[in-house]
Amino acid sequence: MEITIQRDGLSLFGLLEGTDKVENEEIAVLMHGFKGDLGYRKGALLDDLVQTLNAAGLATLRFDFSGCGNSGGRFQDMTVLSEILDGLKIIEYARYTVKAKRIYLIGHSQGGVVASMLAGYFPDIIAKLILMAPAATLKDDAIKGECQGVVYDPAHIPDYILIDGFKVGGDYFRTAQTLPIYEVAAQYSGPVLLIHGALDKVVAPVASERYKAVYENSSYHLLEGAGHNLSGQTGQRQTVRDLACSFLKNMI
User: Fewer CB within 10 Å of terminal CB in the chain, N or C?
Assistant: First the structure.
């Protein structure tokens, strides 16, 4: 089912799948990465996960961050902080409209950073957390003045920087330099599943290793042969699907 959620005058587009109930026992909220979307293309990571989780009887909610996909706003205005604000509204929707008793967060890449911080802000609300190639190195990159191969002066950030045809606003880099990513994430003590590709050229596995050090109640899986989108060698994507499904469906 297509849904629209309002956030500060912006319309966030999403898909609620795997349920038609007024009240739900559980729901998984999925968050996409930098320059991404909720997974419209067949075979996209988030679409693969949704199909697997729905088949296992778990409701899902995936959405486009503002400025991305079919949501309102300009991509140039996107920051990690704006995505956190989007996420606050999505969690509110899961709590009060879907009326889910247990909410799970799943984030890929930058969506993993957002999910980790939201779990830190809502440690009493989020039941489980899955981080896939979480891009916490975005802070390190912003301090150095680099973004996916594009170099800039971190002490004199321009109004925007062009990254693969996307205008990324200067506010994105300015705020990224001081984000308290791991400090906020550490406030969450629930169960965490960390998955990273050993061949990830976008986000180094050290990001997940640092999360592992922060989370006492976590398991970390480094997938040999897998890249940033957690595919590569035959069966790697299926491994991700199996790990996520098992983690969420097994009661603790």
Answer: C
